[in-house]
């Protein structure tokens, strides 16, 4: 009998397969689903450690509570609503056929695949707003992500009949390649987190106003361990996604995915370390070391669109390219008033966009000419713009409505935001860019977990007057 690994491509056609191959199809997904669940749980545990060690809040229990609510709520919403949109058949490449989770036609392993995507995306989004939002607002944003927005993206991009996955452009067949969720997960989660940060506004004057002495004891170790768990958990996205109908499975190439992840992560992190050494004015402290660890995640994100197709050398090159963009963006965000404590903008949003743009140039088949490469690039850009526009409109409206309804900020966040406004001494509302990215001459240090007997801004104003 011919070994299944000898095939470059394999289509699930039961009429032409032996009993042995049918047994492989029947048994592999269950084990993969179990491994996927374990890896995703490790990833969420990693993000909890990152949140506790990076986000300054008055009550750590709030972070723990929001994380457990997030996981349970996302799971329920996706299982009862999201999977109806994401999988269970197809209607014109736009939406699933609407089968209920209890129907026999629903593939439970597909449910676990989509579940892992929405839980990871929610973790990325949570990193931008954790400890700052009202619980009701948190639940509403989770409902939109797991129940509506992401299921549509999963169906459009990850299912065989999705309109983004395969289409025709200038009479040529083009496809949107996103193997491990560059757009479906990283861009979506990073963009939603960024919109949340922009809507919430500032609490302190700059992220770098948190000095090294203000970092809680053990925080650096917790964050470091958290990112290692996230690195392990992201491997769940590289597991084989077996669909029983019309799914093309590239057996040999899948063995390169984990190798590519390791190479890209190592290259990106190593180059970021070199950049820090080459910059003599910047000492290695909590923030610079964490940036070097975050670069490992950024390397995986950069190759996530085509991790199944890249040769090892391409993974290293993409990791190096991603390190440059990641280093520049993360340093700029660090010195801005955008409170991206977990660096999701540079790690997930920017690197996800970069990887989506570059995949047509690094994933070229032997029979592809220049015209087809450019058409695939154009299709990648069209789909990317559509996704960014759609997500931006929906999530921005959601955050604005929550803000005007009084359901966006929790009480602690409201007080911190008020202190920052008073400390800035603003009598009139400034434009968005000035509020976010204007550099402040004087740093105000906020220690994670500290509380104030009086508003910080009033005390600073009195010191200036004296």
From TrEMBL:
GO biological process, one term: ammonium homeostasis
Record-annotated membrane-spanning stretches: 31-50, 62-87, 112-131, 138-159, 179-201, 213-237, 257-277, 289-307, 313-334, 341-365, 377-402
GO-annotated cellular components: plasma membrane
Family stated for the protein in its record: Belongs to the ammonia transporter channel (TC 1.A.11.2) family.
UniProt keyword Transport, yes or no: yes
Domain Ammonium transporter AmtB-like: 36-412
Gene Ontology MF term list: ammonium channel activity
Protein name in the entry: Ammonium transporter
Entry's localization field: Membrane
């Amino acid at each position: 009998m011919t070994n299944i690994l000898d095939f470059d491509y394999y289509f699930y056609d039961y009429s032409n397969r032996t009993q042995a191959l049918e047994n492989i199809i029947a048994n592999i997904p269950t084990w993969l689903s179990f491994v996927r669940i374990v890896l995703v749980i490790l990833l969420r545990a990693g993000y909890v450690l990152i949140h506790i060690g990076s986000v300054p809040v008055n009550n750590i229990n709030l972070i723990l509570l929001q994380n457990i609510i997030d996981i349970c709520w996302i799971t329920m919403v996706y299982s009862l609503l999201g999977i109806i949109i994401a999988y269970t058949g197809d209607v014109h490449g736009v939406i699933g056929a609407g089968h209920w989770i209890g129907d026999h036609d629903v593939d439970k392993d597909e449910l676990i695949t989509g579940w892992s995507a929405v839980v990871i995306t929610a973790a990325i989004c949570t990193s931008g707003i954790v400890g700052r939002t009202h619980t009701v607002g948190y639940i509403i944003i989770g409902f939109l992500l797991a129940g509506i927005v992401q299921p549509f993206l999963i169906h459009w991009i990850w299912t065989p009949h999705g309109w983004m996955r395969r289409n025709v452009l200038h009479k040529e067949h083009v496809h949107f390649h996103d193997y491990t969720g560059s757009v479906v997960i990283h861009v979506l989660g990073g963009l939603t987190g960024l919109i949340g940060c922009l809507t919430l506004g500032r609490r302190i004057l700059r992220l770098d106003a948190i000095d090294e002495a203000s970092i809680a004891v053990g925080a650096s170790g917790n964050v470091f361990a958290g990112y290692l768990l996230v690195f392990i958990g992201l491997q769940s996205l590289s597991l084989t996604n077996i669909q029983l109908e019309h799914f093309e499975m590239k057996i040999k190439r899948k063995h390169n995915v984990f190798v590519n992840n390791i190479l890209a992560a190592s290259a990106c992190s190593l180059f970021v370390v070199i950049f820090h050494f080459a910059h003599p004015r910047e000492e290695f402290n909590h923030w610079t070391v964490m940036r070097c660890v975050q670069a490992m995640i950024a390397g995986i994100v950069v190759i996530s669109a085509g991790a199944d197709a890249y040769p090892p050398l391409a993974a290293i090159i993409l990791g190096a390219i991603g390190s440059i963009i990641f280093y520049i963006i993360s340093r700029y965000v660090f010195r801005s008033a955008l409170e991206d404590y977990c660096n999701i903008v540079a790690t997930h949003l920017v690197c996800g966009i970069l990887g989506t743009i570059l995949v047509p140039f690094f994933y070229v088949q032997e029979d592809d000419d220049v015209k087809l490469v450019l058409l695939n690039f154009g299709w990648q850009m069209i789909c990317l713009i559509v996704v960014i526009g759609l997500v931006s409109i929906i999530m921005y409206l959601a955050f604005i409505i929550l803000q005007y309804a009084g359901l966006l900020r929790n009480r602690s966040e409201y007080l911190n935001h008020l202190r920052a406004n008073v400390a800035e001494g603003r009598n009139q509302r400034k434009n968005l860019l000035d509020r976010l990215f204007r550099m402040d001459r004087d740093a105000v240090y906020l220690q994670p977990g500290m509380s104030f007997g009086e508003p910080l801004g009033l005390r600073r104003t009195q010191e200036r007057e004296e």
